[in-house]
Amino acid sequence: MYTTTNEEGILNNYAAEPKMYYAEYPAIWEQRKYVLQGLFATLIVTTLVLVSFTVS
User: Fold this and answer.
1) Residue 42 phi, psi (nearest 5)
2) Mind giving me the DSSP string for 13-25?
3) Dihedral (CA of 18, 24, 30, 32) sign
């Protein structure tokens, strides 16, 4: 942990910063998984909207 002290003797602590890394482009199977998740989420939202219109 990184600590500094000012003129009045008050301590100021800084958290340790994590190492940075770059994200990698998703593989083709991951992209397909994201498409399926998006389709499933769209189906759920559409169903909920249709049910809410039917009920009200």
Assistant:
1) -65, -40
2) EEPPPPPP-PPPP
3) positive
DSSP 49: H
Question: Helix (H, G, I), strand (E, B), or coil: what is residue 2?
Answer: strand
Beta pairing partners, 14? 2
pLDDT tens digits, one per residue of 5-19: 888 888 888 877 889
Radius of gyration of the chain (CA): 25
Residue 36: predicted pLDDT = 98
Ramachandran region of residue 53, left (φ > 0), alpha (ψ -120 to 50) or beta? alpha
DSSP structural state of residue 10: -
